[in-house]
Amino acid sequence: MRRLPVYILLDTSGSMRGEPIHAVNNAMQILLSTLRQDPHALDTVHISLITFDLEARVMQNLTPLDAFPAVSLQTPNSGPTFLGEALKVAGQKVKSEVKVGEDADWAPLLFIMTDGKPSDTQTFNEQVGAIQNAGFASIVGCGAGPSADVTALKRFCTSVAMLDTLDGAGFEQFFKWVSDVITDGNRPDAPDAPQGGSNLPPPPAEINIVI
Could you tell me the pTM of the whole model? Predict the structure, then answer.
């Protein structure tokens, strides 16, 4: 059965320290639990997790949903937000992990959550075009909290969501919506590539869709 690769990029910079990162850890577990209730997702969805703060780290290579481990992310006390480097790593992983040609995977999905703005401006500017050309069916960005730079996300995402706060309820609703996006495009009768933009499932009230 064809795989649906899902890449998740999470901001772990110092501003996420404390309750926000705990909320993200809990929300990730909800995402995994929700997806595992869908038999077709269990057969097809593979997830990769990349974090970014003063560097980008591959926390988990592309892994089958049923084998994906529990998430326990940490943050530094302070430091920059290297979103550009994270996009670069994601593009490299897609090239090495996603199968093309015979027995090709479905076009991958990319989800990004950040509460700030890119600190590595030059790398970010270089990677905007590259990530748009990396073959993702949808690139969904989430700006969390009042300091999130939604303008930066609009430059490369096919859809951008906003959360007003960094509390657990907001993250939980966003990650539940992410599970809806994944399963909606992963139905047995779905087209080969999940669609982005306005074709995404409607979000809950806590999430404001900007584009």
Answer: 0.93
